[in-house]
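Page 37, top half.
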Amino acid sequence: KKDKDGLKGKIKVVAQVGLALIVGLMMYWSPDIVARENTEIRVNNVIEQVQYKDQNVKTTKTTIPFVKNNNFDYRWLVSWMGDFADEAVWVVFVLSVILIVTAVSNSANLTDGLDGLASGSSAVIGVALGVLAYVSGRVDFASYLNIMYIPGGDELMVFAAAFVGATVGFLWYNAYPAQVFMGDTGSLTLGGIIGVFAVLIHKEMLLPILCGVFFVEALSVILQVTYFKYTKKRSGIGKRVFKMSPLHHHFQKAGNAGIDALIQKPLIPITEPKIVSRFWLIGMILAVIAVATLKMR
């Protein structure tokens, strides 16, 4: 007898963590994944020039948006360990990669509930990641933006272009009304690729902005489930924050649909194509903001 339910949630999480663990270890220990840290030359407290170290180095630093001294070092999280910090930092880095890849992957999976929503949003994110990879891989642009120079980072733009091309090609048939569906295999993979790509170019701190649509969708599910369990434990009756989660389904329900939720608006349901289009527009705005943060500090 065939099982049409697919893999259980726990098995999916274990697989995600396992793959992210392998990726994190490879990224930390591989001699080919390197960077050149930026050093500011200041005159009268004004940045006159940005220089880079002569040699490529392994680094656990990453770019922080909206901050002038915009490098965050994972080593700082274990600095309290003193002399053992250098030996323990790989654990923090790998755990961070696992968290990032798993979070983005599952968020993309939750977003895949309307025709074209996940694929279109991923294409927008892919374009932004391609731009970030290109400027990080060009020493002149990296120096101008005062960010880490990633040798070979511009080559990742080729992969980003392929990623965007694949998602747009899929979107051609996945747009409303959809003829094909990606399922968990596609959405989890899209999120995983985005997470790994961001870590490779040391821009994972931009993901909350760049993947804002994904994270809001995931947050809506977390809030819904948490509030439902809390109210059921307190009063015996589970209540909802949204009419339905993930968030995109909330907008499909009428405010007078008889669902006891804290947020009833909009009272008139919104059509699926309009919801998807608006989420795409929000994703585009967030992508522009994410790229602009390289200079907005």
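Page 37, bottom half:
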Amino acid sequence: MFFTVIMRSIRIYSFGSCSLVLLFILVFSCSSIENDAFSERVKISLREVGNQLLLSNQDSTSLVLPVIALKESEYRLSFQQPLTFEPSNLVFIIQNTFQKSLLPQHYRVEVIQCIDNEVAYSYQMSEDKESTIIPCAGRILPESCYTIEVKFNRRVASIFGRQTIILIVFFGLIMVLAFVIYKRTKIETIEVTDENYSKIGSFHFYAAQNKLIKEAVEISLSKKEVELLEIFVANPNQIIKREELTKRVWEDNGVFVGRSLDTYISKLRKKLKDDKTIKLTNVHGVGYKLEINS
């Protein structure tokens, strides 16, 4: 029975290990997917911000250049032609566009002059109004080449996103269920007594489970092999007549059944051959005997 407990434990722990590996793969895959999706939303939103700024300049022909991701959670918006705008208008356009795109409302914006990379205007938005800093925005920025850089101040693609949390909870429940099944199986296995198997030399014979076990090696038995072996185990070192064996196992005594008996005896010999202290011998013209030398 110890072997059975070990094998079931191995199966449970193997399942648990595979589940954990799969969980980590899914977590980091989802994290990567969430990051990519967030980055695309930001780029689309910033292009919309650029388009609205150009329209506010009565410019419907020049282009908004591709939005560049500078680093994690930091992006740059640039324009084909110089432009002028009022900072308060920029604040409104960005806030309104980000809200529509369901982007985080905690970010910093810097308007940078292309000519010298100096910051011409900057402000900080936060979900906490006390942390929001918007300097005087009434002064119109003169027409020039500007880039607008936006940096989000929170980890927008945390591995603890909503989808990831759902996955963790789901796999956690699976692990708990597997552990409960393992504990119940272990208790049931440990409670099984020695009455459930018979000792044949170095073999453990489990008739109900159709198997022999020797040194952690499991040997499967057919139904007929089990029935024959049960008779021999109940009568060790005694001659069992062929007629009795065929009648009890096959309920017949024909020539064909007699040959089947010989075939199954041969199969049992092969499965018991690893233990030299036991021997299934043929008593010519009479029957068979299971010899056990203790």
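Margin note: The CA atoms of residues 48 and 133 lie 23 Å apart.
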